Amino acid sequence: METVIAQLNALETQHNIRIIYACEAGNSSESDYDVKFLYVCKLDWYLSLDPKPDNMRTLIPASDTSNALDMNGWELKKALILAKKNNASLFEWMTSPTVYKEDPEFAKQLRELIFAWLIDNTDKTFPPPQLNLLVNEVTLPDSVREIISNLIEKKKAGSYLGEGRHSYDLEKWFEAMISTECPEYCKKFKNVKPQQFELLDPLLDKLFYSTVMKYQ
Fold first, then answer.
1. What's the domain count of the chain?
2. Are residues 35 and 70 in contact, defined by beta-carbon separation less than 8 angstroms?
């Protein structure tokens, strides 16, 4: 872990950025570590009219003293926009059991907003890459396991889950899991009506603005 943190710190210095969250994804076939991270830039980056890269990747080969590192980062605005477009990656990163670096307040707020969006948009989401592994590690009702298996097969075919609400059994299972794993979310959003979740957009905007300005 110390090697990963040292490389993250080096990226901050090299690119004049601040990494606000970094975790282990474990999806890379090219390295021992598959590190995903979110970062913010300096204010002039956001104010420039010229298009600039909003992601970065660094692949560090293995050596006699360290393992290979595959490090992929998204600029925060890019990450939040992709999350609103149903990209499952950010959801997976924010629930990783291995966190190398984070701004605790930012991570807490983002997790709450992600879960709020997820539970009200079951018709727009698709399973994350490691859902099949997660399913094998938990006890599930047969009805839920069958539904998830079908969703994974659709994902393998390269398609989204289609339109319309998902199975009631699946929705209730997600609600139960979220209430257990993210009690702060439940306390904050339990009385919000579905149509009011459109208010999440300005909350994401506020989180983006406050986080960027914090590191100027």
1. 1
2. yes
